[in-house]
Design a protein that fits this description.
alpha/beta, Undecaprenyl pyrophosphate synthetase, six-stranded parallel β-sheet, 6 strands, binds 3-methylbut-3-enyl trihydrogen diphosphate, binds magnesium ion
Amino acid sequence: MGTESKSPNYPNHIGMIMDGNGRWANQRGLSRNKGHQQGVEACQRVVKACQELDVHYLTLYAFSAENWKRPESEVNALMELLELYLAKETKTLIQKEIRLRAIGRLDGLPAKLTKSIMEAVDATSRFGEWNLTLALNYSSRNEMVDASKAIANAVAQGDLSIEDIDWDTFAKCMYTKDLPDPDLIVRTSGETRLSNFLMMQSAYAELIFTETFWPDFTKAHLEECIKIYCARERRYGLTGEQVHKKKLANK
Ligand code: IPE
Ligand code: IPE
Ligand code: MG
């Protein structure tokens, strides 16, 4: 997990905060669960679109650690939908050679779901060019806590000295240790917050907030986000002049 992306002009890794399923359904007089069902279809569309648009890493925020606080019936419906999604999608992922990963406290999920995730992860582990990651029971703060415990343990065991701890030490202990940093985070539904998603990994990500509710999100919306991203300048602390010089030198 480095700071700069592989290609500065095109997003290699997009993180999606898929928000607005409930409001999409409310507007239509439907149940929130119906909104989540439509949200699953948007997931399938976007996974397909990423491959077509040459985006190699996609991370979908599917269930936050805070989402357990929702009504039990909604939580149960979401867990069932995730199971269904995996049952339907695994074949497609294999066919399209997309590697699946999951980040978050997976042991906190229903055992049956964890098992399905592990099976799908195993079934796609030989792939690597295309990567889909589901953030499940995920919280950036929990991730920092878990990484800190792992580091503290390594120090206590004498495997690591305190002086040697740097960001790289943390990066290697994060759930995302095998992923590049996200270049772009998109949040749908008009909310302009990160809600505990990839907080550290997004340190230098571009952020795009769109009004579209997640169930309405299409390939065309994704293309528009990529276009906006491509027009931005990522400076990583440099001046604009330095960035331009660097670009010229790399040509
Ligand atoms: C996102 O849609 C899906 C999850 C958080 C699981 P919401 O369910 O948050 O939809 P709104 O924000 O209530 O409209
Ligand atoms: C963030 O959406 C979590 C997911 C998209 C899975 P929420 O709807 O839970 O976020 P808040 O509560 O509005 O910040
Ligand atoms: Mg929401």
